[in-house]
Amino acid sequence: MLPKALQDAIDALGLLPGVGPRTAERYAYYLFRSNPKLSHSISDSLVHLHENVKSCPVTFALIDSSEEVSPLYSNPDRDKQTILVVEEPLDIYAIEQTKSYHGTYHVLGGAISPIDGITPDKLHIKELLSRIKSDAAQEIIIATNPSVEGESTALLLQKMLSESEPSLKVTRLARGLPLGVDLSYADQITLSAALENRTNL
Q1: Number of structural domains, the chain?
Q2: pLDDT greater than 80 at residue 177
């Protein structure tokens, strides 16, 4: 029988995605054996997480609670006429690390998944359509994930945009085989995309 405080910590850590019972036990025991300052630091950061982080009302990116809008939108060096559409806020940081994109972003808040109850009206699509008009957008780059849900969302967006803004340029991130991947391990979606996006040598 474990001490109640330790069991509570294991149960709490086990609520995190991808953390099974054994991993939760290891994490809890590691924290118990470590300097108490580590536990206090983690606890402190979690307490302030909801207080100090909010969603940008324009792009739906994550921002500090003291900010009005995302700096990636308000920065005058960003091209507001180009909007890259992603599923989740953390996708933005993956793109930003490339240092090769200088437009703005729009976070949908997920991908269409009827099984999970995520229908088009639950995503920030209406807000995207409004932004296209208010920012006089010239190009929308669809950067949804290469999953069944991501593909469905991308197709719906393409259809809606072609109907509402026929003169708008709509593009998608190129998809294909990543370096170092064996063909036999590639999934069907990746292989199909690689064939469609093949280039001349």
Answers
A1: 2
A2: no
CATH number of the structural domain spanning residue 117: 3.40.1360.10
Output the DSSP codes for 14-49.
Answer: TTSTT--HHHHHHHHHHHHHS-HHHHHHHHHHHHHH
Helix (H) or strand (E) holding 134: helix 125-134
Determine the pLDDT at residue 129: 95
Per DSSP, 154 falls in state H
Q: Summarize pLDDT for 40-90 with one digit per residue, the tens.
A: 999 999 999 989 999 999 999 999 999 999 999 999 999 999 999 999 999
Whether residue 116 is found in the same domain as residue 43: no
Residue 179: inside a domain, yes or no?
no
Q: Which structural domain range is residue 115 located in? A: 67-172
